[in-house]
Amino acid sequence: MKVFEFLATGFEETEALAPADMLKRVGVEVVMVSITGKREVTSSHGVTVLADALFEEVDFEGGNMLILPGGMPGTKNLDAFKPLDPLFKQYLADGKYLAAICAAPMVYGKRGFLENREACCFPGFEPELNGATVKMDNVVISGQFITARGAGVSVEFGLKLVEVLLGKEVAEKLANQVIFTYGYK
After folding, report:
1. Is beta strand 97-101 parallel, antiparallel or unpaired with respect to 29-34?
2. Per-residue pLDDT tens for 12-67?
3. Is 73 within 8 Å of 45 (Cβ atoms)?
4. What are the domain boundaries of the chain?
């Protein structure tokens, strides 16, 4: 299993690192991809992270999922990065997963991908989820899309990504290992 997570200047570090950590703990290869042209990407709170690769260096063919962390202006920077568009379309056509947390579901929503699906996002970004049925759940799985509300549910989001890729039993075991005490569902 391999997933690609995209880092833009101003990303929310918890929303990027917690899901990546959950996935790595169960053996999923997580490739953190910078869309900035530099491997060093600075978060919305001034934390600089070293990405694994630059967008232009990556062959996305063997991936199972694309992940967008939220944060501002990170989400706006992801939205403006047009080379992602054909990649989104290819993953959808191939039946692969697209995940996003916090404000980032708007990237999929603005492209019409969430039409006739359920989705959630950070409060205030609901109008950007064009055509979606907006839910108030922490994490929503609807077809190929996994969306989550914000930084406070980053671990739960990561566990849902594990569940989608490797099954509920693996996700439940991981939840117990990391003492996820709010009850994994």
Report:
1. unpaired
2. 999 999 999 999 999 999 999 999 999 999 999 999 999 999 999 999 999 999 99
3. no
4. 2-177
CATH superfamily of the 2-177 domain: Class I glutamine amidotransferase (GATase) domain (3.40.50.880)
**Helix, strand, or coil (residue 40):** strand
> From CA 92, how far away is CA 94, in angstroms rounded?
5
Q: Give the mean pLDDT of 6-15.
A: 98
Question: Helix 154-166 to helix 13-25 angle, to the nearest 10 degrees?
Answer: 40
Residues 131 and 134: their CA atoms lie apart, in Å, by: 9
Distances (CA, A) of 81 to 86, 88, 101: 11, 12, 17
Nearest residue to 26 (alpha-carbon basis) of 130, 180, 138, 165: 165
pLDDT given at position 181: 75
Q: What is the distance between the terminal CA atoms of the chain, rounded to a whole angstrom?
A: 22
pTM of the model as a whole: 0.96
- pLDDT over 60 at 185, yes or no: no
